[in-house]
Structure formats: structure tokens, C-alpha cells
Design brief:
The protein is of the alpha+beta class and 199 residues long. The protein has 9 helices and 9 strands. The protein has a 5-stranded mixed beta sheet. Strands 1, 2, 3 and 9 form a 4-stranded antiparallel beta sheet that branches. The radius of gyration is 18 Å and the shape is globular. The two termini are 20 Å apart.
């Protein structure tokens, strides 16, 4: 969110942000009610019929979270265990399509973490920064769950725009703004601030 706001500010655009599930944001783009939406990893299902920002706003590092002391030794660790995945997110087919994985759905990422903490699930997959942020907000999670592994599933997060005149204009301004904050160091400063925030 900080990067998207900074990119728009760099080109003099006042941005109105609304927090909604990705699926609802994509539907509102299709209806012409939103000019753009993020966080969106690039895959055919999500990007069909939309314009994609030139550069990503982030690279999402996917981590595996479990109760304290749980071992993770690669994707096979999910087999025969309860893997909690949040609704509204796209996960790799090699995980969701593995018949050995028992997938349980959570209504949100925080709900998934709480399921793990309560022993109603064994593992969940979540973006590293999102995990750090949610754990910082919920003190009970700090003593119950931890990162036990990192997946080789880094996902470039882009802003998607409506495929219409409004979306084309919004994309052009955003791309120009991202170039500006890359040149002036604002993008680097934002990443450094986030990286150090939860250490």
C-alpha cells in the first residue's frame, strides 16, 4: 500500500484506497467501478482481461508457518497433515493438486494463523511481511506460531488495471510514478522500513 500511494503521489495523483478481498476487487474492475487493484500475483486467471503494471510493487516471499517446534522438511511435510489456506488467494497447483495434502480453508490469513495456534491446522502458507504484521498485531500468536520454512514460490505482485480508458490512464500514471520513486530512492526506503519494522 505504501508503494502504491508513493507512486501516485510522485505524479500528483490523490489516491482513494479501499480494502476489499482480491476477488471482490477483481469483480469491481470488471464492472468498471475500480480503475485498479492489488495485491495480485500474476497468473492467467487473475490477469485475464486486465492491464498489468510494468513493474511489480513487491516480490512476495511465501513462508510456511506452524506451531512452535514443528518441523518442516519441504512440500512432502504437508502430506497427511492439515494445510490451512486462506480464501481469496491463488496457491500453486503442485500444492493444491497434491492428493496427499488435506487442505482446510480459512476465511482470512489471520483466521488461518489462529487455526494453527489453536491446533486446528498444522501448516499455513503466507507472505513473510503479512505474517510479521499480523503476528505483531496479535500478541497471542507471538508465543504460539513461527516461520518453519521458506517456499521457493516467490511471486511478483503487480497492480492490475481495468481494460478501459480509465484503467489505461491509471496504469500510465502508476508506471510513471513507480519509475520516479525508483529513481529518487523512495521505493528503496519503503522496503527498508518494512524490512526493519518487525525484526
Amino acid at each position: 500500500m505504501d508503494l502504491v500511494q508513493a507512486a501516485h503521489k510522485a505524479v500528483g495523483v490523490n489516491l482513494t484506497l479501499e480494502a476489499v478481498p482480491l476477488s471482490r476487487g477483481l469483480a469491481k474492475i470488471k464492472e468498471g467501478l475500480y480503475a485498479g487493484v492489488f495485491n495480485a500475483g500474476i497468473n492467467e486467471e487473475v490477469t485475464r482481461g486486465k492491464l498489468i503494471s510494468r513493474s511489480p510493487v513487491a516480490v512476495s516471499q511465501q513462508v510456511v508457518v506452524a506451531r512452535l517446534g514443528e518441523e518442516f522438511k519441504g512440500l512432502r511435510s504437508f502430506n497427511g497433515r492439515r494445510l490451512v489456506l486462506a480464501n481469496g488467494f491463488t496457491y500453486p497447483a503442485r500444492i493444491t493438486g497434491d492428493p496427499g495434502n488435506s487442505i482446510h480453508r480459512a476465511v482470512s490469513e489471520i483466521n488461518g494463523l489462529r487455526m494453527i495456534a489453536a491446533g486446528r491446522g498444522d501448516f499455513t502458507i503466507i507472505d513473510r511481511f503479512v505474517f510479521q504484521s499480523l503476528r505483531a498485531q496479535d500478541s497471542s500468536l507471538r508465543t504460539q506460531v513461527e516461520v518453519v520454512g521458506v517456499l521457493d514460490l516467490d511471486d511478483r505482485i503487480h497492480v492490475l488495471f481495468a481494460r478501459n480508458a480509465k484503467g489505461e490512464r491509471a496504469k500510465a500514471l502508476f508506471d510513471e510514478g513507480m519509475e520516479a520513486i525508483e529513481r529518487n530512492g523512495v521505493k528503496r526506503d519503503i522496503f527498508e522500513r518494512w524490512d526493519g519494522k518487525f525484526r
